[in-house]
Amino acid sequence: MFKCKESQKGGISLVELFSFGPFSVHFFGVTIAAGMIAALYLATQEAKRVNLSEDAIFDVVLYSLLGGIIGARLLYILVYDPVYYLTNPFEVFRIQAGGLSIHGGILGGFFLGLWRALRNKLDVWHVADLLAPALILGQAIGRIGCDVFGVPMDKPFFWGVEQNGQIVHPVQAYELTLNYLLFAWLWTKRKSIHYKGQIFVHYLIGFSAIRSIVELFRMNPEVLGLLSVSHLLSFVGILTGLLLQQYLKKRYPLMTREHIPTSLTRTIGITFLLIIISTGLYYFVQG
Question: Which residues bind a 1,2-diacyl-sn-glycero-3-phospho-(1'-sn-glycerol) (predicted)?
Fold first, then answer.
């Protein structure tokens, strides 16, 4: 049984699982890595199912993950604390100290993945549909170890977690649960799409809506009334998804539907099993 200990780096509470020499392994890093592996595995399995080159999809996913990390870091720096990083440029590379924006990760991953899909001469929107369920699955797993907690609860409800002597909202558990539910929706929706890019559009709108809801319980600076930067970015994501929906419906309609043997009961069962295991692990380590 490992012993968890918390350390303060950059104002963020990181759960350290173990260390060797000057190197530390944190819970968040482990869950992010697990999420990436799960996303990569699911994407390559889907590529095999539709007779796409597994090597080409592996290439797209690998670059998307790289773009996601770069984009997540850059947007966080530009939006949340540019002055600090201008005066402390080497801090840019201390990702282990915290400071990643999921919206930046989506942007960076999309554009680098788009580039690689075009280089591999793949149908971009077909690939986007293929990768969307894998992407949200990876995000759900990664969120288990997230080190940003919510605002204090009005009352000490039993599902709250203690941080610095206060009972706060377990926003990571909220988000991972909603992400898994979105995964289940995208997974079952694959067999009834009406245009290319529909699964990706549902992912973009769905995740942006999830983030808008979860943001209500997070402690982020408000920039417009009660709205945070993350709220504004999520609204942009929803609007982009709606505009994409109208464009893709007209540009890439599908006359025939692909037969995909998907059991709704099995999908629901696996989804709830993942939610139970993930929230259990979250409370075991973070609670």
Answer: 143
